[in-house]
Amino acid sequence: MPLQFAWSITRQSGRAGMLAGILCYFGAGCLVALKSRRVLMTVVYGGWVVAASQAVPFLQMISGIFGVTAAGAVGQSSKPGIEGDLNGEAGGFIATVVTGGILLVAALVLGLVIRVILVLGKRKSAVGAKSLQCAEKGKSDG
């Protein structure tokens, strides 16, 4: 649904800018994948949550509003704010990069939260297993 909305407020040249923004994020993602698997997986974990949130696309719509507003703020919209259609490649590019950036940061933050929960869960289970081993050893010694 968010893509359908974005498509409806862009003209043909604005769509070319959207494609350019998408390709920039794709290229950046490929570079991150080559450099840091940990960062990649953090974004992937959070990305699953962001993707699932599209069932109720509040985050996506708010991000899109910020993106369109940013494009309008630099004169790339037929009207100021979110009422106008995006003009030209620059308008589509700016709106896509801002919208995608917000969603990417959300995915990164959620991914970090998931990683922390997983790490803490592993540590607790490791501590519990260690305690159990010590308790069993104490029983066998006695």
How would you explain this protein's 3D organization?
There is one protein chain. With 142 residues, the protein is mainly alpha-helical. Helices cover 82% and strands 0% of the residues. It has one domain. The protein has 5 helices and no strands. The mean pLDDT is 83.
Tags for this model:
single chain; 142 residues; mainly alpha; 5 helices; elongated
Blueprint (SSEs and pairs):
Layout: H1 2-8, H2 12-35, H3 37-52, H4 58-73, H5 88-141
Helix pairs in contact: 2-5, 3-5, 4-5
Number of helices: 5
**Percent of sequence in beta strands:** under 5%
**Helix and strand sequence:** HHHHH
Q: What is the averaged pLDDT score?
A: 83
Helix/sheet category: mainly alpha
Number of strands: 0
Estimated radius of gyration: 22 Å
Give the CA-based shape.
Answer: elongated
Biggest β-sheet description:
none
- The portion of residues assigned to helices is over 70%
**Domains counted in the coordinates: how many?**
1
Distance between the termini: 67 Å
Detail the poorly predicted runs.
Answer: none
